[in-house]
């Protein structure tokens, strides 16, 4: 009889935790979907995740693992091969498309409006290419693209690029097992740094690559300006440089 008390207590605690989990998993649904009325029935299948965080934990965990496809795979396994799913990403209700047909549908449907996460807009700038209108974007791209990545501009650097690629490939052939994407990124970064800064310094490249990595992580994170979070580190990079 003495053991029945703790056992019932444990059952009660598990029941409360289960009920709390059930409530929390439906907060985003109550906040965002119920206000749509009958339109919510037209939403694709999916999962809005936890309050405020949404699906970001599983998203970031997957993309930092050796199996980034596992994030989309979880949606496919739970909701089938629909090619379009609802989710809660970067602090906003979102739609994820995974097939060419659904991508075309989204791009051609006026119901879908282009947008960027808050962290991306704040870090890259509201007046940058991502923050301006389509027509202004097209005009500025026309003015800048040729001078940066046009054939005439890049042809000046072809001998340098070719020499570096050949030399790097020879080094890779002697390295045995390596992390290909990391070394490819380093090669690309070295070439870009030479084109824009006319520098080949290993120290400068290492320092810039670290700052760029912190900035890149912040652009793809939630806008949480608290020490230890990627967005906070990226803001510090921006502050140090500008």
TrEMBL record:
Belongs to the cytochrome P450 family. This is Ent-kaurenoic acid oxidase. Gene3D superfamilies: Cytochrome P450. The lineage of its organism: Eukaryota, Viridiplantae, Streptophyta, Embryophyta, Tracheophyta. One of its GO terms (cellular component) is endoplasmic reticulum. GO terms for biological process: brassinosteroid biosynthetic process; brassinosteroid homeostasis; sterol metabolic process. GO terms for molecular function: ent-kaurenoic acid monooxygenase activity; heme binding; iron ion binding. Pfam families: p450.
């Amino acid at each position: 009889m003495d053991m029945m008390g703790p056992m019932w207590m444990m059952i009660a605690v598990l029941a409360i935790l289960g009920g709390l989990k059930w409530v929390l998993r439906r907060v985003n649904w109550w906040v965002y979907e119920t206000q749509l009325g009958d339109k919510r029935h037209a939403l694709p299948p999916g999962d809005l995740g936890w309050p405020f965080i949404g699906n970001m934990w599983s998203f970031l965990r997957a993309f930092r693992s050796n199996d980034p496809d596992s994030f989309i795979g979880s949606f496919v396994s739970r909701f089938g091969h629909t090619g379009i799913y609802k989710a809660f990403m970067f602090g906003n209700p979102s739609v994820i498309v995974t097939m060419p047909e659904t991508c075309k549908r989204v791009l051609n449907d006026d119901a879908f409006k282009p947008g960027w996460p808050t962290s991306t807009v704040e870090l890259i700038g509201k007046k940058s290419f991502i923050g301006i209108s389509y027509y202004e974007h097209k005009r500025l791209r026309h003015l800048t693209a040729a001078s940066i990545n046009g054939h005439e501009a890049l042809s000046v650097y072809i001998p340098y690029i070719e020499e570096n690629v050949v030399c790097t490939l020879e080094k890779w052939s002697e390295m045995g097992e390596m992390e290909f994407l990391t070394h490819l990124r380093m090669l690309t970064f070295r070439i870009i740094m030479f084109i824009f800064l006319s520098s080949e310094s290993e120290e400068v490249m290492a320092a810039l690559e670290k700052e760029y990595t912190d900035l890149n992580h912040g652009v793809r994170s939630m806008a949480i300006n608290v020490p230890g979070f990627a967005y906070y580190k990226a803001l510090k990079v921006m502050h140090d440089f500008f």
